[in-house]
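Next up, a specimen:

>
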Amino acid sequence: MLGPRRRETADKNPFESGILPAHDTSIRIPSQFYLIAMFFVIFDLEMVFVFAWAVVVRPAGWIGYTGMLAFLGLLLLALAYLWRSGGLEWRARRVPRKALPL
């Protein structure tokens, strides 16, 4: 309500670091890119836990060691599941179309 009433042509263009875009900025990015990016972030954060464990490995003793083996086993199972289910495939799977009855 309190803003300016008129809109200029410069307001309709996206602002990219003070440079006007040279081409259309509305590109389509496949959804597989976002899935793989999320998996990367998840597994990368889990490696932070492994690094923190490596810092305190001696005081943790055998209990900490077996706990980390269980954690790494769970990570390996999750990675195997993603690989097996096709979550790491970049190309989309083609679903066969059902034949139409004649």
User: Anything to note?
Assistant: The mean pLDDT is 78.
